[in-house]
Every structure is written in structure tokens, then in C-alpha cells.
Amino acid sequence: MPALNPAYINVQDFNFWYGPKHAIKSVSMAIPECQVTAFIGPSGCGKSTLLRNLNRMNDLVDGVRHSGDITLNGTSLYDPSVEVISLRKRVGMVFQKSNPFAKSIYENVIFSLRVAGQNKKSELDEVVERSLAGAALWDEVKDRLHESAYGLSGGQMQRLCIARAIANRPQILLMDEPCAALDPIATLKIEDLIQDLKKEFTIVIVTHNMHQATRCADRTAFFYLGELVEYDTTGVIFNTPAQDRTEAYIRGLFS
Amino acid sequence: MPPTSPDVPGRFLVSKGILRIDRFMTAAIRLGGLGIIIAVFGIFVFIVSQVLPLFRGAKVEETSAIPFAAGKAPLVFGIDEWAELPFYYEGGSEVTFVDATGAKPPQTLPLTLPGGAQVTAASYISADQLVVVGTADGQVGTFTVSYDAEFGDSGKRSIVPSVTIGEFYPVGTSGGSIRSVGYGDSGDSKVAAAVQESGGKLEVHAVLLRQKRSLMGSGKLTKEGAYDLTPLLTGAPLQLRVPRTGDSVLVTTAEGVVDYIFLGGDAPEKRQEFKPFGEGRKIGSIDLVFGDVSLVLTDDLGEMSIFSLLVPEGGEQRVFVKTKTLPNLAGPASFFARSQRNKLFLTGSGAQVSLRHSTTEQVRWEKTVGFEVKGAVIDAKCASFALLDSDGNLHRYSLDDPHPEAGWKAYFGKVWYEGATKPDYTWQSTSGTDDFEPKLSLRPLIHGTLKGTFWALFFAVPIALLAAVYTAQFLRVEVKRVVKPMMEIMASLPSVVLGFLAALWLAPIIESRVPSVFLTFAGVPLTAAVVGVAWSRLPAQHRARLRPGMEWVAFIPIMLVAAWIFWSLGPVLESWICVVRDASGNPVTDPATGRTVMDFRAWWPQATGTPFEQRNSLVVGIMMGFAVIPVIFTIAEDALSNVPASLTAASAALGASRWQTLRKVVLPIASSGIFSALMIGLGRAVGETMIVVMATGNTPVMDWNLFNGMRTLSANIATELPEAPVHSTLYRTLFLGALVLFALTFLLNTAAELLRHRLREKYKLV
Questions:
Q1: In B184, B312, B385, B666, which residue has its Cα 20 to 30 A from B700's Cα atom?
Q2: Residue predicted with more confidence, A178 or B594
Q3: CATH assignment of A9-98+171-250?
Q4: What local confidence, expressed as pLDDT, does residue A75 receive?
Q5: Residue A164 near chain B (CB below 8 Å)
Q6: Number of residue pairs across A and B with CB atoms under 8 Å?
């Protein structure tokens, strides 16, 4: 096994603007391979924005611009030769609100394979089982794969979205507050899942839930007003933060 | 309302005003909604009430029976237009008038026949109030029984009859008694014909008279010829009829043959002999319906057929062809009376009386009366008729049949109209003559509506949907903010302006540049596809120069150049293909330039055998398409934009291209909305009026030819309503057209709504 890259995703002096709003201010950070990195911080601190830049989802928004660079395993995401579609195939994403398509569970899972032109039934079946099992959903839905995804509960839908995101085996999985709309039991299941998934994927997770960050993340970054305040191992951030603002935040003194 | 108790603080109470307004608004909204339903339903009920009388039969009621000619043997009888003073004539030197109300005793008017001749045959031509008589000494003549309304001092109307003797002409063998007479008067040419007994044999003679007309009025009647038609006959003559065209004589013979003898040429000529009921069958009766081009024939068993004068396909002369079969009578027709307003006729056998309509082959009314009918007459207004029984009583009936030419067959079936070579669906509601058959088939109009709609949607749907898809899913928001209101302004263009543009500006351009139009329509999308493919093959770094959603900046100039190139190539294509040939198949050369004529307008009819009109479906398709595009665009764009961004984001995050996202995620969810857009566009096209009125030529033809016009139901209502008297058949037929339009849109909308519902169920979000 090759040595894991400690700066698998490398953010270098990255600035980002939504129109006149300076959303990310000179952020530099290195995200290691096959670890879970959590972004925490109060609402509007830029953590989600940074996450959405990692697969260039912000391209879809009007009136945005950036400076600085983000590299993925050494290659700039913003290089003109980068095909954004293939970038998104490498960097999967799970959204805050579960968003399955108006299709069957089966079709939802294999969506990324379908758009890549894969139609071989046996392979697709295998992918569906592997992905759903990976998302800890297989046992619950294996008998109703061809029913509408909208028949699932909220937690199941979110796990289906995770299964969908990992079906095409991306290298990185971005999770934007994946448990924000879930009950505690579903949340626990997904957290367990994250622990499993990090063996295979590099995971970046945005969360509002301190306990979640302590439970799943190897490293944690604290953002405040578009700045990266502190970035270290989760233990350091939650036990002995170097910055007062970090400490104040994790103690719940402001949000 | 919650119970109010003293311990509830005032700030929790709802003020009376708010509750009152709330109740008022609830009632007002309920009233408004109910009002809409009532209004729509009311319109529907009104239209139906206007249409229903069209499908009613005739209403006939016996009003009175009066003693009329008891103990007498009238040769003819007739009635005035008010049906108040019927007369009869026995053949002597007086005409007897009987007051139908019985208030006054019968009165007689003297009639002086030339030479005191004895009348042996007579017939009554009700339209001219003319009695044609034949005498025992071989003369044929006429006298007129006319009625004048006079108003006395009290303002009461009284009818004053008068009898005027006309000219008499000797016919055939002098002194031969006349058995039956016929007389036809077309104004300047008259034919009097008679079956005459001569030496124990029956002969047929005819006299042709012409009246010279000059600026000084009508001149004297001159006898142009007297003909013995007997040698032309197929056998012994039975009955004789002379059409009002005044150029021919129809004779039935004992052998069951009808001889059609034409007198309009230099000498009498037998145009046609035909056995209407086949071998061995006898002819029971022969009569002409109003207009005198259709014959009602019955055989001796009562089988009834109608033969009409027409030029058969491949023929050159008008001959009688069997066009219709009506239900049988109980036996050969023993009496016949025709309406002077339409193609109704009253006939029957014995005690059976049947009112029939020749155009629609319908029996409008039928009854077996309690007496044997000796004769019948319909008044000039077609509001009553009278039957004479064998005891000399006159039975008067009121007749109410305002729409005999209507009915399912007339509106939706093929009808063989007089003069047509075959049964067909025809719309021609009015004409210059009174004896014209209104042709009221709605099929050409329904066809025209569908045709116009088809071509409009053919043009509009691809453009509108692709534009909506591009605007909703690809275009940058800041551009979309400009495009969408622009399209909405386009929707608000009055259709009369579009119709005006179509007729006066677009039609002449298209007429002269058809190949260019086709090349452009084919070429521009092709270019777009080619450029699109080429663009997608470019390496990413080149493509990155244009931000996603701004590709149109590069595309528009390319499309404009392509459009210009293809438009200019049109004449080149025309000069390759459209060689105009003369009758012998050689290319036509222009005498001025010496070059071969290459012209699409002339070439199309030669190549396809279908006409090329300037106001054609292509013009309508483009212009009506233009009117429909914004409707479809706006609604479809809304449907596409309303697909949750979270789903498009999910799709994009999974590595789907914009097109894949559109096709796999957006389109299925938006499908029900897009479907609604199409249906509303369809509804607009079906009901569109001004553009089709102005740009189609309004020709009610039934073909799918792109270069021919059409007439739609809506345009038909617009063009014909000014010509339709209230409650006339045409008026009600236009309402029927409206009802069909209503039904058409109702069916389409209901089907569409069901389908849309299914789509929405299938792709609903949570």
C-alpha cells in the first residue's frame, strides 16, 4: 500500500466571493488522504462554501469568483484542462438535505454509472448491492429495490444518497451536514458508516454538531467569518485549542 | 368563534371587523367561483339550445278540414301564400275560390278560353301561380291565378284573387285531345309540352318559345319551333315533366324508361334514356324538386330514388345520374307537392303522406291519414300544406320545419349534392341563387382546424421547447432575466397584427422563396448540431474561455451566418430541381431571357398535382407558431425552472453533464408541466381566429398539402356570422361549429389533464 498523502487536498491561499461578499478569506489547509476531516463553525462562516469548492459545485452559482488555488493530489482544480464533469466523478458529494431522484432505489444508486454509460445488468446489480451495503442500507431495502426512493424514511433516504455518492467509487466524499435533518438513531448509523467509509475514501464533513465532529473526525478545522481560525487534530481542537475563539465556540459561548 | 369569557385578555380577542371581512371574503370568493362555473355552463347550455333545433324533425299539425270541392272533379287546385284562399279549377270557364276560414261563401271568377275550348288536362306551377292547360282541340296555354293583399279602412287584410288568361298555342295534330301538359319557363326561353291523343295513339309534342329582351323591357313572345318528340321516345308516353330551365322535356314510358329530350339546341335531341329501377320495373311517378335539377322517381311498388343532372367524370354533357335512395313509399306516389324555398317535398301513396328532403335523403315527417289523398299543395312560405281527399274536403296542416337541410348526415357525412360528380364533404353555406343547396359539412372545417393546429405546433413546439430547456437549464440567470419577459411580451402581440403581417408581408416573401425557407429550416438546426458537436470535441481549455451558459454569444453569429447562407442558397436549389415543363413535358423557356424557367410556384403543382396558393398552411404554420411559441415557452420554462435545484445539484455532483442532468432528472419531473404547456399551446392554436382568417385564404378544402389553404372552425364563425340571419340554419350551424370547437378542446383538455395527472403521479417529489 502506498503511503498516504498528508496533503491530498491542498488549499492554497484561497479566497472566494459571492458577488461582493467575501465568503472565504485566504484559507490555506492540507487535507490528508483516507481520513475524516470536519469543518466546524457558526452559520455563514464559509465552511460549506469551501466544501462546495472542492468539487466546483459553486460553478453553478452566478456571480462567483475566486483567487488562490486548490489542488487535488497535486493537480489544480481550476486548471483549464480539468473537465469539471470528471472532477465531480472523483469527488462525490452528500448534501445536507437528502435529495434522491424521482426514481427507484435501484436507479438512484446507479445514476452515476448510467450517466457514465454503463448499462451491464450484472455489474449494476453488484454495484447496487455493494453501495447499499456500504451505506448500511442493503438489508433494509433489498426487497424493494425497484420501488420509489420516496417511500424511504428520512434517514434511509440520506443513506441512499451516500450509497449513490459512493457507487462510482470516488476518491473523495464531501458531506455537507449529512445528519442535520436526521433523528439521533439515524445519525448514529451514518456516523458508523463514516468510520467504515474512511478506509476507502477521503472524507470531508461539514457539521454543526460538536459531538459528531469529536466522534467521527480525525482532524477538525474551525472557521469563523470566512477565515480558518484553527486546524488541527480533533483531540487538540476540542481539548486544548490554541485560539480563544475556538474554545469559545466549542464551549457554546457563541454560535 | 372561541367562547369569550371575562378572563381572556382583550389582546387575544379577534376584532369583529376582521371576522366580518373574513366572512365577507369567504362568501365573495365562493360566489366568484360559483359564478365562473355557472357562466361556463350557461354558455354551454346556450350553445346547445341554439344547436338542438337543427336535429329536430318537422312539426306538422292538422289545423282544419273544410268542404272544398265536394261533388266536383277539380283538375288542379292551389293556394295563396297566406294559405287562406285556396282555389280549384275543373276545366270549365270559371275558377272557384273557397275561403279557408269558412266565413265567406265560395266565389268564382270567370275564365274565357280561346274559342270556348274544353280543357282536358291541367297542371299547377305554384312558384309562378300558373295553371297550364291543354284543350280537347289540341291547344296548350296558361292562365295565372294571382292574389293581392288589400288593407281596408280598418287595417284588416283581405285577399283579392284575380285570374288572367295567357297565350294559347296549337300543338301537334290539330284537334287531338291533350292528355297531360307540362310547362317550363326560364324567363327568356319557355317550353310547353303535351301528351296528345292522335288517331288512337299517344304522341308527345313540344313548343319552344323565346322572349326577346331589350332595354325597353321584355318583348313579344315568339314561337321558335314546334316539335314532334314521339319518334325520339322509347315507347308509349305515360307522364311528362318540363323543368323550369325551359330547355328540355322528360317523358316516362310504359317500358319503365325515362327519356331526357333536350330542346336547347338546333333540333330536339335525346340526351339520355335510362331505366331508373332496372329491367322489368315500371315507373310510378316522376317529379322535380325545387331547383329543377333533381328528379324524384318512384316505381310501381313505391321504391324511391333521386336522379340529379350532372356532368359525370369523363363526360361532357349533363345527364341524370342516380344520386340518392329514399325509404320506400307504400306504393307508387299518387301525389307530389314541392316547397318553393328548399328541397322539401310532400309525397305519398294512398293515405300515406310523407314529407321528405332530397339533399339529406331524410324523411322529415310521415303519417297515414284517415283518407285517400287526391292531391297536395305546399304554400309559398312553406309554412303549411293542404291535402285534398276523395270527398272533396281540403285538410289543412301547419308545417314547421325550419332546418330540413340539417342533420347528422349533412354535418358529418358525405352528401351527394346536386351537380357534384360524387358524394363529398363540402362546406358552401351560401350562393347567389335561391334554389341552391346549402352545403354544411363540418368535416372540412374540423380538418382545417386540425391542419392549422398541426402545422402551427409543428413549427412552434420544437422551437418553444428547446428554447425553454436552454433558458431554464443552460442560460445564465442574468440573460434569462431579459429573455423571459421578452417572450412574454411576444405573447401579448395581438393576433390581428400577426395575421396582418402573415397575409401582407410573410405570405409574399414565402411565396417567392419557398426553397429558401425549406433550406433555412433544415440548415440552421443542422448547423447548430454540427457546431455543437465540434464545440464539444474542443479540448477543455478552449471551451473554458466561454463560461457555461454563455455559449449563445458564440452561437448566435454562427446561426445568423448559416441562416443567411441557406436563405441565399434557396434560388440555387430552385434552379436545380424546379424545372417547369409544358404540356408535352419539355422545359419551358422564358421568351425574354431564353433561359429555362425554374420556379417552385409553377413546379409544385406539376410535380405533385396539388395546388400552390400564396395563402397557405406554411404561412399559417409559421405565424400561428409564432403566436403559440411564447405560450408554450413560458409555461414549459416555468415547469423546468421549478425542478428543485437540489436535484440538479445532486445530478451534477454525481458527474452528469448538463444534458444528462436535463434528460434524466429535469425532464421527467417537468414532464407534466411541459405537457400542460403543449396543451395550452394546442388550445391557443385550435381556437386562434384572426391569423387564420387573414392568412389562410379560408378555402374549406380537405387535404394536408402544405401549400394549400384551409378554413378552421373559428375562422368560419368569424367570416360567416355577418351573413347568417338570426335563427337561420346557417346561424345555428355556426353555433354547432362553436360546439364542435368546444367539444374538441374539452376532449383534448380532459385527455391531456388525465395524462398530465399520471405523469405527475409518476414523477412527483415526495
A1: B312
A2: A178
A3: 3.40.50.300
A4: 87
A5: yes
A6: 83
